[in-house]
Specification:
The complex is a heterodimer.
Chain A: H1 2-20, H2 42-69, H3 76-84, H4 97-107, H5 120-131, E1 141-145, H6 166-169, H7 188-192, E2 198-200, E3 206-208, H8 218-222, E4 228-232, E5 237-239, H9 247-253, H10 263-267, E6 273-276, E7 279-282, H11 292-296, E8 302-304, E9 311-314, H12 324-328, E10 334-335, E11 343-344, H13 354-358, E12 364-367, H14 374-388
Antiparallel strand pairs in A: 1-4, 2-3, 5-8, 6-7, 9-12, 10-11
Helix pairs in contact in A: 3-4, 3-5
Chain B: H1 2-15, H2 26-32, H3 36-65, H4 74-96, H5 98-111, H6 115-127, H7 131-159, H8 171-185
């Protein structure tokens, strides 16, 4: 070890001395070729300097001429817009990547500023500022999974042992799931997601992370069963089933399928649900996201995406005992005499927010039950807005 | 003469394939072979740049560097020539054929400092090849690299569906694959004896 080190130092010094003395020592290895000389005359070094400088000047001038002659005039706005865009090149806007959309939105007056799904309204506003177009309000969308029948809750027709991918599994007689409308659970959507927003649950169902989902639609296109759809994020109550089998058949195949019993239709206070083709559907334009149907559904096929519903709380200093809230409450959680302060039975309240929306005095607040973390505080702020809309 | 040119062409494309037997250009090789489309785009751009770059370097080497005994500067000068040429091509393409530029332009920037692009003129210089022989080496190497890219891209597209052990997913399995293809390419080695 010690001897090797000294050898190395001696060699380096030897080479350094030879370079200083302008006597190149013969050496073997990389760089040695037919032209390697034992001694490089000063003339050659001079030629080298001249040739390198000459080539440098020639290339520099040539590139300058080319750059001036073939200049492409580009709208500086295009570059600005491109920098604003997220740069995911997901194609949700319908153009060839972010650059394509930037050019289109600057060049074409008919292209809207709000087409970038990952950028959401923040980016739309910035683009509107750059291009001078008007930004219309973007109602953010999110991918929703229309199936809750994971491996534990649904039946299989056969044992599938092929490639673990939904597009491959669907080739084998439409997949191994008994329900032909349900999620196969091999995670094709998870791999298609460019934003890492989907992961598979322990029950082999895709879980969508609302923070990361940009509604680009890649998973919608990837799913061979059309289980995923894009829906408005604010409409958080969804009938998570696509089954159009008859109720009895659905029940045999899956414990959480929609059996088209019609209870939700009768429950819905805003007539937003209809049963067609053995399958209930919510009209999101009418839905007030009260969550009543979620509670009443006998098969739990309706999913409420609001993690913790807030509860109604009456401010006794404002309440004038109008009794409107007690009449409107679908679960009879509010009681009190007319012209006396009313009270909410917290154990009955389902947090639908109908009373808060109807109270003429605005005496009812939707309050988070636990009020623990900042994240839940945000939810509280969102709820009445969604109800009021 | 013709025989020599043909020999160089076949040897550089198959027997001394830059990826599979000289292990050069691996960063581009692994970078663009995830999808067939990018692999094909890269193949075209690469072969064209290789051909023109080798021709330019041959002229400069033969008529400037040899008379002035500047062989020892060839690495520096060849890189400069290729970089200047690629930059000019980039600018001209953007103006003249924007469609082609948006399809292939992104690969040009990757090519400038590629080792195969530099290796071909260096081999030409060391072997003292004539113009036709240099061109044969350039085209052969370009096609050999294209062949490597297309083989790899088609396998990797299939690989997307395979059940690969977690620790091998991505680059590791690609290296294993490259090793296997390199073994297969060894079969060409007895074809021609130079």
């Amino acid at each position: 070890m010690y001897e090797q080190l000294t050898d190395l130092i001696v060699q380096i010094l030897y080479h350094a001395a030879s370079i200083l003395g302008n006597t190149l020592v013969p050496q073997v290895g990389v760089g040695g070729s037919a032209e390697s000389l034992e001694f490089v005359p000063w003339d050659y070094i001079g030629f080298g300097l001249v040739v390198l400088a000459g080539l440098g000047i020639v290339f520099g001038v040539a590139l300058a001429i080319v750059a001036a002659r073939f200049v492409v005039k580009m709208d500086p706005k295009v570059e600005q817009v491109r920098e604003t865009l997220p740069g995911a090149n997901c194609g949700a806007c319908g153009f060839a990547g972010c650059m394509g959309y930037a050019e289109a939105v600057v060049g074409n007056p008919d292209v809207a500023v709000s087409m970038c799904a990952p950028g959401k309204s923040a980016v739309a506003e910035k683009i509107a500022g750059i291009t001078g177009k008007k930004a219309e309000k973007v109602d953010p969308k999110i991918a929703r999974v229309f199936c809750q029948g994971g491996t534990a809750l649904s039946q299989r027709k056969f044992i599938y042992t092929g490639v673990k991918d939904c597009t491959a599994a669907v080739l084998a007689a439409g997949g191994d799931k008994s329900c032909e409308f349900g999620c196969l659970g091999y995670g094709t959507c998870m791999r298609a997601c460019p934003f890492d927003a989907i992961r598979m649950s322990s029950d082999n169902l895709p879980l969508i992370n609302p923070e990361k989902c940009t509604a680009c639609g890649k998973c919608v296109a990837a799913c061979p069963k059309q289980v995923i759809e894009l829906a408005q994020a604010s409409k958080a109550v969804v009938i998570s089933c696509h089954s159009r089998d008859k109720g009895a058949d659905t029940k045999k195949k899956c414990q959480v399928g929609c059996i088209a019993c019609g209870i939700c239709v009768r429950t819905c206070p805003s007539d937003a649900i209809k049963v067609e083709n053995n399958h209930a559907r919510i009209d999101h334009a009418k839905c007030i996201v009260c969550g009543l149907c979620v509670k009443k559904c006998p098969t739990n096929a309706i999913k409420d995406y609001i993690p913790v519903r807030p509860k109604a709380k009456i401010d006794p200093s404002i309440c004038a005992g109008i009794d409107m809230c007690a009449k409107v409450c679908p679960v009879n959680a509010i009681s009190g005499d007319i012209r006396a302060v009313h009270a909410v039975d917290q154990s009955k309240c389902i947090g639908c927010g109908m009373c808060a929306a109807r109270c003429p005095k605005k005496a009812i607040q939707m309050v988070e039950a636990g009020q623990v973390s900042g994240g839940k505080q945000k939810q509280e702020g969102k709820m009445p807005a969604a109800v009021g809309a | 003469m013709f025989e020599k040119v043909l020999t160089i062409f076949i040897a550089s494309a198959l027997i001394n394939n830059f990826v599979f037997s000289r292990y050069l250009g691996l960063c581009i090789f692994f970078g663009v072979t995830k999808r067939m489309e990018t692999a094909v785009g890269m193949s075209f751009t690469f072969t064209a740049v290789m051909l023109i770059g080798a021709a330019l370097n041959w002229v400069i080497y033969e008529y400037v560097m040899i008379p002035l005994h500047l062989g020892f500067l060839k690495i520096v000068i060849f890189i400069g020539v290729v970089a200047a040429f690629v930059q000019a091509a980039d600018t001209i393409m953007k103006k003249v054929t924007p469609a082609l530029y948006y399809k292939l332009g992104i690969y040009l920037a990757l090519i400038v400092t590629n080792c195969i692009i530099l290796a071909v003129p260096l081999i030409n210089a060391d072997e003292h090849y004539g113009l036709f022989e240099s061109m044969a080496l350039a085209v052969g190497s370009g096609l050999g690299f294209s062949l490597a890219l297309i083989i790899m891209a088609s396998i990797r597209e299939k690989l997307e569906l395979a059940d690969v052990p977690i620790s091998f997913r991505g680059l590791p399995i690609s290296f294993v694959l490259t090793g296997l293809i390199a073994l297969a390419f060894l079969g060409f080695s007895g074809m021609i004896t130079l």
